[in-house]
Design a protein that fits this description.
CATH class of one domain: Mainly Beta
Shape: globular
Helix content: 25-40%
CATH architecture of one domain: Beta Barrel
CATH topology of one domain: conserved putative lor/sdh protein from methanococcus maripaludis s2 fold
Number of helices: 3
Strand content: 25-35%
Distance between the termini: 24 Å
Structural class: alpha+beta
Mean pLDDT: 74
């Protein structure tokens, strides 16, 4: 592995540990008091949902702290995205779609590409959907934590 790969692996490890720590702390506070406390505001319990058909949700704190950025998509309409919007797995590449508060990894077709951007289309997009353009490493970690491994339909 080169230094860049080592740095990426180390960064994902640190994010994983931080995510697990946050989950553990939230669960401990919820167990101790029968409900969760935040910074003077109520915690929305639906934020912790995961459903293999819809995807997984993130708390607003995680959304903000890990710099998740979104870009509006159109239904079946090709869209141009920065290449960093694409999650590259071992045997596949996907986008993270955001719909109704849920993130889900979806397939897409590459129509054109340059050094920095790709024009893509996907049958998995509807009007109002958004695509994650930043924070993909954290989204992958959250997906693994939510589903205990690779999400159904994406294992090879």
């Amino acid at each position: 592995m080169n230094n860049r790969s080592n740095l990426r692996a180390y960064s994902l490890l640190v994010l994983s540990c931080l995510y697990v720590s946050l989950l553990t702390l939230g669960a401990a506070v919820a167990d101790e008091h029968g409900h969760e406390h935040g910074n003077g505001h109520a915690h929305d319990h639906e934020e912790d949902e995961a459903d293999e058909s819809q995807g997984f949700k993130l708390s607003q704190e995680a959304f903000k702290n890990f710099g998740i950025q979104l870009r509006k998509a159109g239904p079946g309409v090709p869209m141009t995205l920065p290449k960093k919007s694409i999650f590259f797995g071992l045997q596949e590449k996907n986008l993270y779609r955001y719909r109704g508060g849920f993130f889900k990894r979806i397939d897409f077709k590459t129509l054109t590409k340059t050094k920095t951007e790709m024009t893509v289309s996907s049958d998995d997009l509807q009007s109002g959907d958004q695509i994650a353009t930043e924070g993909l490493g954290f989204l992958r970690i959250a997906e693994l934590a939510a589903f205990g491994g690779v999400a159904e339909g994406h294992s090879h």
